[in-house]
Amino acid sequence: MPSTHSTVISKNEHQKVWDLLPWYINHSLNASEQEIVKTHVKTCLTCRIELAQQQQVFEKIQQTDLLTQVSQASLAQLRKRIVEQDRSSHIEPYQQVSKQPESSARQIMDFLKYGALAASLAILSMPFMLATENQGSVAEYRTLANPSDKMTDNMLRVVFSDESSTAEIEAILSGVSGHIVKGPSPQGVYEVQIENQKDTALAKKDFMVRDAITLLRRNPSVLFVDLVQ
Amino acid sequence: MVTMQKSYRSQEQQIKEKNLITQAANGNAKAFEQLYQLYFNRLYQFIFQITRRQDSIEEVINDVMFVVWEKAATYDQTCRPSTWILGIAYLALKNVEQSTLREDRVVEYCDEQDYFPNRGSTAVSQLEMNNWLEVAFDRLSAEQRAVVEMTYYQGLHYSEIAEIMHCPENTVKTRMFHARKILAKLLSEHPERS
Fold first, then answer.
1. Where does the pLDDT of residue A146 fall: very low under 50, low under 70, confident under 90, or very high at 90 and above?
2. Distance CA B64, CA B83 (A)
3. How many domains does chain A have?
């Protein structure tokens, strides 16, 4: 019986000391608590191991540079933002960005421009549509407003408003790291490449292209922008 | 760094801080500015470790120090200045940023297996890339982070932490118990552990 009693006391003491170890490490315990811990640790291997481990944690926390922590937290938030933006793949159906009232002549010109563009694309896509039907496979129907997720070429088709000068167009494109590769076509369509560096990772390229599309669509001088399929 | 802990807790430091609060209570703006300078880094660290967000920290610090300025006359000198000021900060965080304290995400780890993340899990692969402490802190609840921060960085006794957090001392010990299990486990798994 005495030995059992002593074991129970020892267990209670062990638990108490185990709980106090962090405050033994930070030197905030009062004299009597400190003495209890000090005495117990001399004979308890478990507490000694725990003490050494918590000492490591304590030192690590003490040594950690706050600026590094803050920058890592910022980076984590940025990563989250990039992932969220990527996930939402904000290539929404094309919407007229400019909300300013437009003259009827301008609207007619825009209509003709889009009409011509749509007609030429329809003619170009006809052989492909027929070919897929002949092969008996399921044809993948895609409109300009519903492009593929794959953006390996970084190429966009962009139509600017008639009022845009060459200098303005270049300024707008340089704001999204883009440059004109071809155009304007008779319909006023430019083919634009977004920063094509060979060492840029594919995911980053995709992100940059999506970002460029969003920024261009927000620009009132841009009437139309979409990926080259 | 241990010297920093000692300087936080030293009698000399506490007397100095108490005097500054008394002077601030009498409208001495210069004394208040000194107190502000003394506590800026501590509060920054404290707020960041609990919220894990760096935006609007300065705003919270100013809210806290505004209360210190306004209520300096009510400080009764019985507790340490740090207990009083960090207590105001903790309360401000609870009131203002309750939604960001992530209490909903991790409350307390009661299941033993939670201390043993699977190899190949996101947390473990993150560990291989980032500072393990960052990952470890993210795995703790806001309450656990607060206890660890106040113990290992601010150097407070568990009774002071209980006072700041308005909870029993045993709750502080329990939060620390779970937190240190998680920290120790991640420390032991980290390849660059010392």
1. very low
2. 13
3. 2
